[in-house]
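Hey there, shall we discuss this one?
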Amino acid sequence: MLLPVAGSVTLADYIGQELNVAWRDGLEADPVRALRRLAITFAAPELVLRGPLQGLDADAAANAIEAVSKVEDPFSLVGVFEICADRAAQGQRFVTLGDRLLDSLFGDMRRLTGACALFGGIFVITTAHFAMHETLQRRPVFWRRIASTAHASLIVRVFGGKGIDPDEMISWAMRLFGDAYFLSVVSDFAIEPQWRPEWILPKILVADVFGRAFGAWRRLSKEAAPPSWKERLDKAYAWIAEEKIETFARYQSVLQGVRRAHRPTLAEFRNIPQGGDAFLALANEPNANTLLSISPFIETFGFPYESIGDAEKVLASIQSAPPDEDDKIARAALAILAHIAILTENPALADGISELCLERARRADSHGSIFDLALPAH
């Protein structure tokens, strides 16, 4: 059962207070049971409270990790792999456990994709249920998101990912509750704008899991990083690259949607490889194609306020082009512009996007995708 909120108003408060207390009390009483129970909240790295585990001796920590290594929920597995990485230099047992965790995660990519599809489908349904529930809809966004991911993790533990068709699973969930799910996530953009509802797709979740595992390995020193881990991660990356989803490995996790405390500046983007060039390209050619090409920088790091004028020029270029209902590039660019308007809290840009979408909606045979863009922008 997920811990209730007892005064916390943000996810950071909840982690530092309610969850931290539960971790410490649980680990003191029974480390194996505590880690297995609390691992259902590992859908973002911030929820893996590695600090409280530092007090456990090596055997107790290894026993707890080993217990969780037997579940099929990929977010529990990658969370305990992050914990295992912290202990990589403390003995061969942790290296062997890391091998086992990576094999469980990436040894069968079809099974992993099925598990992520089941997780995503249950998350969609649960999120929609909370949004429509008379009492639960009043709970803080972060609590509803954690509860949804915890419920999804429990379902995956029971059923696993074998034999699940990812497309059928997510389509089934969207047919049942897609509208309510989408409306719930975009309605919460004022508080948590960093995570987009379409990122619940199975392969994007697979990329998220891989990104976290790879990040845990990269944090290790050259001496402490086991070669066997790199071999397994390299094999997984080959699949990720073949599926062309490596960009999503750098995007925010489902529980990392909170608004950035600091808005990035152009000067800061110049310190990111190719970051400065990306926004220089947008300034030189402010059109839909350029915006699409730099979207990974926007989704990963944010949008600099100094480039708002270039975003407005992209919108103007779409407005001046002949309307084409099947223009996928324009629709994708409008979706990115809508997200920029939300991230930068720019009502003028949001109004412009909404007006354009509504204008095109009057001439369109199918309004679904157009209204999906206009709603979050507004």
Observations:
- The chain has 18 helices and no strands.
